[in-house]
């Protein structure tokens, strides 16, 4: 969904060829995941059908020489998408919660479950920290977003570790 | 496993009244590595740091630095060690308010007999490295919180200690300033080869470490010592 809005938004500064659009997307948003050409062209075909882009023909066109331009309807769509707040993701820690409760119910070490998860979270946080200190501002912002989310998980792990006795008393028959 | 450790604690016990602050805590720190001590408030992580640094003496157990038993040293031997081999960064309030930032950073060098001129030159280089050269002539009270912590980091590292003890070094700072302090601190520590024992309850701060050790109820769960 957001790939299509991102491509559409990139056209606001002027018409582009498909390959140029892909390159700009990869440079700006791609990071680890660059777009396939196929995805660019299928997205453009859909946007064309919906009237959000139009094709500017060039003399001697082959299929790769199509230049895509955003329409007024496309601009309105991008504007609405940017302005619309995202629904906050409700991540209920369900898998981890299940593991902890099951460990308690079956007499396994629930603290160990939380500890090894913490180590795994920290390992990833270290990797992101290294990556952002070696990168540019864009890397830093992208990694920070992930780091803050991981940190929130970790706070849940801490709190749950501190409440294990109470949780055990509640879930055990 | 412990033979490579530059600094180690073995089975430390220490109580404050009825409260067992350390209850069999062990930790090993190798030269040049950054270890984060994590754990909830009251878990004993700061007490462990103070024992490792020779500020507190455990009731039982052993702290060894470079093969020497800290617990068997005299007070003056221990303070000599703290001055010569260790550096400290606390949450706040560690700089001498009457001295300028430059004089604060130069202080450890002056105490170990470096001439005033040389000490000030080296201190100035350290302030530049921590990107706070512009506060050299200011008193700590005239610097911002983030600048003050970077001055404190410069002071902790200026005498090329082999271990820096940092207790919640970013605890009083906002995310952006905390981030900058950690980035410059860890880069400088890695460059000089100092080991860092970092007490923090913040995962984003701990993420600057090479590994973490979790302190809970006065005991340490040390992450895999290898790597």
TrEMBL record, chain A:
<dbReference type="InterPro" id="IPR036388">
    <property type="entry name" value="WH-like_DNA-bd_sf"/>
</dbReference>
<feature type="domain" description="Transcription regulator PadR N-terminal">
    <location>
        <begin position="7"/>
        <end position="77"/>
    </location>
</feature>
<dbReference type="InterPro" id="IPR036390">
    <property type="entry name" value="WH_DNA-bd_sf"/>
</dbReference>
<dbReference type="Pfam" id="PF03551">
    <property type="entry name" value="PadR"/>
</dbReference>
<dbReference type="InterPro" id="IPR005149">
    <property type="entry name" value="Tscrpt_reg_PadR_N"/>
</dbReference>
<protein>
    <submittedName>
        <fullName>PadR family transcriptional regulator</fullName>
    </submittedName>
</protein>
């Amino acid at each position: 969904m957001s790939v299509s809005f991102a491509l559409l938004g990139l056209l606001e500064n002027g018409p582009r060829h498909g390959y140029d659009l892909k390159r700009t997307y990869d440079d700006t948003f791609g990071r680890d995941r660059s777009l396939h050409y196929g995805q660019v062209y299928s997205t453009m075909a859909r946007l064309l059908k919906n009237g959000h882009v139009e094709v500017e023909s060039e003399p001697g066109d082959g299929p790769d020489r199509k230049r895509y331009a955003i329409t007024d309807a496309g601009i309105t769509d991008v504007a609405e998408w940017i302005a619309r707040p995202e629904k906050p993701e409700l991540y209920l820690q369900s898998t981890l919660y299940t593991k902890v409760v099951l460990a308690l119910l079956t007499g396994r070490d629930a603290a160990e479950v939380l500890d090894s998860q913490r180590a795994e979270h920290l390992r990833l946080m270290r990797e992101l920290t290294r990556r952002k200190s070696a990168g540019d501002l864009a890397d830093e912002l992208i990694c920070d977003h992930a780091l803050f989310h991981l940190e929130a998980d970790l706070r849940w792990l801490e709190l749950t570790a501190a409440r294990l006795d109470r949780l055990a008393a509640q879930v055990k028959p | 496993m412990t033979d490579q450790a530059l600094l180690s604690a073995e089975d430390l016990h220490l109580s404050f009244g009825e409260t067992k602050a350390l209850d069999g805590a062990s930790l090993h720190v190798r030269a040049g590595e950054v270890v984060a001590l994590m754990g909830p408030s009251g878990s004993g992580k700061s007490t462990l740091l103070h024992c490792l640094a020779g500020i507190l003496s455990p009731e039982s157990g052993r702290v060894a630095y470079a093969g020497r038993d800290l617990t068997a040293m005299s007070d003056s031997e221990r303070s000599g060690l703290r001055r010569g081999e260790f550096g400290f960064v606390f949450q706040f309030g560690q700089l001498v308010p009457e001295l300028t930032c430059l004089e604060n950073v130069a202080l450890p060098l002056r105490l170990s007999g470096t001439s005033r001129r040389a000490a000030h030159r080296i201190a100035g280089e350290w302030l530049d490295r921590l990107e706070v050269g512009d506060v050299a002539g200011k008193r700590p009270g005239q610097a911002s919180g983030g600048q003050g912590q970077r001055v404190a980091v410069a002071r902790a590292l200026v005498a090329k200690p082999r271990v820096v003890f940092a207790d919640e070094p970013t605890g009083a700072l906002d995310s952006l300033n905390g981030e900058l302090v950690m980035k410059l601190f860890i880069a400088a520590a890695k460059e000089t080869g100092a080991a860092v024992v970092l007490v923090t309850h913040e995962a984003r701060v701990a993420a600057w470490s090479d590994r973490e050790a979790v302190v809970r109820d006065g005991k340490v769960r040390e992450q895999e010592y290898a790597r």
